[in-house]
Amino acid sequence: MGTVLVVEDDRDLRDLVRRYLERAGHAVLSTGSGVEGLSLLADTGPDLVVLDLGLPDLDGLEILREARSGRTATGVIVLTARSDVEDRIRGLSLGADDYVTKPFSPTELTLRVGAVLARTAATTTDGGAVRFGGSRLIIDATLRRAVLDGQDLDLTPTEWGLLGTLASVPGRPFSRYELVNRVRGYEFAGYERSMDSHVKNLRHKLGPDGATIVETVVGVGYRLGLRRDA
After folding, report:
1. Helix pair 85-93, 191-206: axis angle to 10 deg
2. pLDDT score of 125
3. Which long-range contacts (CB under 8 A, 24 or more apart) does 226-229 make?
4. What span, in angstroms and rounded, lies between the C-alpha atoms of 76 and 79?
5. Could you tell me what percentage of the chain is helix, strand and coil, using 3-state DSSP and rounding each to the nearest 5?
6. Could you point out which of 101, 121, 125, 194 has its C-alpha 20 to 30 Å from the C-alpha of 142?
7. Given a cut of 80, is residue 82 above it in pLDDT?
8. What domains can you pick out in the chain, each with its CATH number?
């Protein structure tokens, strides 16, 4: 369960989503204004945002960028009538954790919200802190905490799932397709192409050594470049 911010200008749809999410046990904040959505995002720090891109006063992508700015680790599910594959890839490339097109099933949306929040709490091991590269990288699945060179990493749910998957078998190459299914739990048309963007964002947060910590395996995908400590 978590706190979900719903930013959707259609009041009937907004209320419908709220009812389903509250029925599932989530605390829900909602607004039809993009400007107010930005304010609520900054003031309340929700666990996840269900975000309409077609807002009347602000492009929803601005809220998505803010959520992905590094100041928060808020998950984002884009909810929009923009169904073109390139639009989906654009939103996912900016860091959205999922993309739901209208019309949609509120039950399915509720399940997708639960899936993103579950990834936030997902474990990469049986529990406890696991160290890599002579303790350079520490992943504590119980606390959902990743630390590199003594600095906490502020990761989105997708980035957390990506790092955790790679760390589950250090040195083993994971294909993009496999990462999509492991991180998301199901296949998504076009999402495989956006995995490179999530890797890019994760590497940026890992700093100057990001490309050696998350290595590219040409023709395959990616692997963790640090050994697990004994």
Report:
1. 10
2. 40
3. 226/132, 226/133, 226/136, 226/137, 226/170, 227/132, 227/133, 227/170, 227/171, 228/130, 228/131, 228/132, 228/167, 228/170, 229/130, 229/131, 229/132, 229/133, 229/134, 229/135
4. 9
5. 45, 25, 35
6. 194
7. no
8. 3-120 (3.40.50.2300), 129-224 (1.10.10.10)
pLDDT value, residue 123 = 38
* pLDDT band with cut points at 50, 70 and 90 for residue 126: very low
pLDDT tier at 209, thresholds 50, 70, 90? very high
Residue 37: half-sphere exposure toward Cβ, Cα within 13 Å = 32
CB 28 within 8 Å of CB 7: no
**DSSP label at 74?**
-
